Every structure is written in structure tokens, then in C-alpha cells.
Amino acid sequence: MALAQVAQVAQVLEDLAPSALAAEWDSVGLQVGDPGATAGVVLVALELTDGVLERVRAKGANLLVLHHPVFFRPWKELRWDGAAGRRVAEMVRLGCGVLVAHTNWDAAPGGLNQQLAGLFGLEKTEPLTQTGAGLCKLVTFVPSGHLEEVREALSQAGAGWIGKYSHCAFGVNGTGTFLPREGASPFIGRQGVLERVEEVRLETVLPEGLRKKVLSALLAAHPYEEVAYDIYPLANTGPGVGRVGNLGRPISLGKLADLVTERLGLAGVRLTGDPGMAVERVAVVGGSGGDLVEAAGVARAQALVTGEITHHRLREAGDRGIGVIEAGHHASEAVSLPLLASGLRRGLQERGLEAEVEVCPERGGGDPGRWWPAGGVNEESVEATPSPPAHRAVTGLVLRVDGASKGNPGEAGYGVVVQTPAGETVNELAEYIGVATNNVAEYRAFIRGLEEAGSLGAVEVQIFSDSELAVRQINGVYKVKDGTLAGLHRQVKELLGGFRSWKVDHVPREQNARADALAGMGVKKGRKKG
């Protein structure tokens, strides 16, 4: 597999969250870096913080994919004596690019708001309000022998995408006529002769914002010297900000608040409205959703779940009879980072491109706010009331781990695949650890995987490894006699003790193929450094 380039990662992100879906005021796309640079290590994070910058250094990352733009409003100066400027300067020095998907990821089919709607059990969902440009229909006429080539070009440019489906188009056969005049260089026919050609009337939809790009692709792929096409504006609503849908049955606003608290793994949420009011139709908006109170009312929503909302918007919601649940800006958005990373990973693999894609741990870089104890402030109460986790969108995770050593001992690395119990990949990790034995590399894989599961908020974990020795030692079947392994074994057991439940199983190597491949990638990193 070829090593991915920044521009290729950007194209995968464009497929996941087309930039045409971004709000007019937003800033998305490649904000820092060289499109032609390699992107072998990609980190996904909510925003650029000192903690994220530290991870970029540690991983030697080539590209950082963010939800919050680095350059949002125009900067009048770029100085190193301010925190924001210093971080940008360091990213440039490290040679790490910055790629942003903001409101386009919020609005994308299968993006942030769709994920929140699914997380809270909403059915028959639809956009709360449209963002970006509207939709239009493109009609063109293609000689039948070139239909597939033109249709593929239009799809690659962003036309024909409806929900989770691409290449959506309709074609009907017919006969086209034209008479090439003097000076024409027809692809089919001769000057001065009326031609009749079997053609296909091809229709497809596209966001208005992609009109220029799609037309360029059409003209480049179409064989005719003069291409006939029509564009019609549509009243259809395309993807948009927020989602609104129905719960399976009515519940109280208080029960909905409990559900949000549980699914996002929070210590609590802010509730405005009567906790006992019946709720069935719910609107969700990740981040700041105050501007969509009116849209929630028009959509007949009885409750709005969002990250944050201002006092005056809360008053407006109350006047409209809408209950509001605030989960925190950070928690309502960070929950989607594993989904974004998974989409990037899958898109690169489908293109035959190699890159390690990892959700950046939020150690010290999560929600800038904190939960504060009620009933007065004193040192004792502050110490006794820790901040809750920034988000905990999962209760259980599956880890597939493997270590590799070229020489035993020799250059060594490990690989970790983090999955949901349903088998969806949440994260993949590959690291070089220097000269070590296979057994040491295996234990290091266990340790890194457990650390990652803990950072993602899991309370239950199941681990699969093809190292029978490590599995039996961790399960207490074999004693650990090697001094080096004893320390690593103790560290694994301590980490396992932090979970409510855990299970470690041995699997054949062929059932652990992806972790094995990642371990090999870790070894390669060391060779490249050497």
C-alpha cells in the first residue's frame, strides 16, 4: 500500500463531510500544511490545545484533523508571544498540517448530529435546518459508450450523493441530433452532415456549492466538443444542521436528561423546563444550538438536546414550551471523534493508502470548564469533587493486541485495534518501542491498549491476543519468571483493576491479522528513524 498524502486524506474527508455543507461563515479544509506532503500518521482531535500539540510531537504526526478551526475569524497578526500563535508556529516547525471539518461534519449524513440522534434513540430523523448551499439537479446527454466514465467523474466531484448512497443518478435512452458547422471538430460525425446519436439523458443532484467543481468534472470527462447540460434549482432539503426525530415512546424530560447523561457518560447535565413534561419528538444539535430554538419549534420538537445555549435563548425555548438539556459543548462534539477517525481509516484503506489514524487522547486537553461543587466554596469540597470525564460514550470496548520483534530481541513494535462490541473500529495504534523481545512487545501492546480504553471512558474491556504465553500469564495460569516481564505483568494487572470487568482470550494469529499488521507498521517506524 502507498503512503497517504495530505491531499488524499483531505479528499477522504471531503467524501465524509463535503465542504459545500459548511455554513457560509465557517472555515473548513486544509488550514496549515502542504497538500503534497506525506501523511503516514494522522491524529484526530476536537481542537488544537497544548495537550494535542504534545501528542503531535510524541507521535511524529504529519497531519492533525480538527473539528474546531484554527483560523476561524481572520487573524490580523501571527505572533509567537500568544498561545494560539505559538501553537501554529510549532505545528509549522513540526511539519504537521491541519485539516478541519466543522459545520460540514455537523451536517453530513452519518456525521456528528446523526450520531447523536442515534445515540439517544431517535427514529425517522430529518435535518433540523439546512446549512450551506441548497440542492440543484444536473441534466446532461452522454453517448451510451461513455456513460460510466461520465457518471463516475460526476460522483467523484460530489454529485449524486444522497444520504449514505453515492452514484445516485437516473438515465433514459434517446436519440440526440446535431449538425457540425464549419470550424467544428466533432467527436462523432462530419461537418455539414446531420448526425443522429444514441445518447443517455443522465440526471443527478448536487449541492449548489459544488456546481463549479461538478461542471468542471463533466466537461473534462465528456467526449463532446460542446457539452449540452441544464441545471435546475430544487426545493428539496439537503443535509443540514441538527437532527429532529421521535423516541420510540414518550418519556419525561427528566428521563431524557438521564438518558443523555448515561449515553455521554457525564456526571450530569443542565436541564431547563419541567422534568415531568412528556417528550416524544426531540431535536439534537452538537455544540452550540441556541440559534436553532426557533427551528426546533417549527419542527414541533418538545425538547432540544445541545451542548450549550445562552440565557435569552433558554427564555425563548421556555416561551415555546421546549425543554432544553445542555450536555456541554465539548461532550456533545468529542463523542463523534472515533466515528470520524473510523471513516478516515476506512476511506484510506478503500483507496489502497496506508496511514495510521488515531483519536488524540485528551489528557489535559478536554473541556476547558469543570464541574464545581454546590453549597459554597472551600478547599475541602474542591478536593473532594473531581471533574467528571470529558465524555464517556462507551461502556465496553474490545481490544485486539499484538507485538512484533525482528530478531527477538531486535527492533520491536506493537499494534492495537480498539473496537466496539459490535465490531466497529474506534481506533488503531502502531508504535515503535526500540529493541525488545516478542514477549515484551506483547505486554507493551496490552498496556497501551488498556490505557487507550481508559482514556475513551470504557468500564468493561475484552482483550484478544495471539500470544498464548501472555494470555495465560495474565489469567494466572502460568507464573511470570522473567524479571522484565514481571514488571510489565504487574502494570497490566493494575490497569485491568481499573475496569469494572475484564476478559483476556487467546485467538489464532489469523484472527488477529489487523493487530499483527499494525505491529509490523510499528517496527517499520523504527527502521525509518534509523
Q: Which value, in Å, is the CA radius of gyration? A: 27 Å
Strand content: 25-35%
Helix-and-strand structural type: alpha/beta
Beginning-to-end CA distance, first to last residue: 21 Å
Count the DSSP helices: 17
Strand order of the largest sheet: 6-11-13-14-15-12
Uncertain segments of ≥5 residues (pLDDT<50)?
373-393
Instruction: Choose one word for the global shape.
Output: globular
**Level of helix content?**
25-40%
Largest sheet: 6 strands, mixed
Structural commentary:
About 4% of the residues have low confidence. The chain is built from 17 helices and 22 strands. By secondary structure, the protein is α/β, with parallel strands linked by helices. It has a six-stranded mixed beta sheet with strand order 6-11-13-14-15-12, with helices on both faces. Helix 9 links the parallel strand 13 and strand 14. 33% of the residues lie in helices and 28% in strands. Helix 14 runs parallel beside helix 16.
Relevant terms:
5-stranded mixed beta sheet, globular, 28% strand, alpha/beta, single chain, 530 residues, 6-stranded mixed beta sheet
Topology, element by element:
Blueprint: E1 2-3, H1 6-16, E2 29-32, E3 41-45, H2 50-59, E4 63-66, H3 83-94, E5 97-100, H4 103-107, H5 112-119, E6 123-130, E7 135-143, H6 147-156, E8 170-178, E9 195-207, H7 211-221, E10 229-233, E11 240-252, H8 253-264, E12 270-272, E13 278-288, H9 293-298, E14 303-308, H10 311-319, E15 323-326, H11 329-334, H12 337-350, E16 353-354, E17 356-359, H13 379-384, E18 396-406, E19 410-419, E20 425-436, H14 438-455, E21 460-465, H15 468-474, H16 483-496, E22 501-506, H17 513-529
Parallel strand pairs: 1-16, 3-4, 3-17, 4-5, 13-14, 14-15, 18-21, 21-22
Antiparallel strand pairs: 2-5, 6-11, 7-9, 7-10, 8-9, 11-13, 12-15, 18-19, 19-20
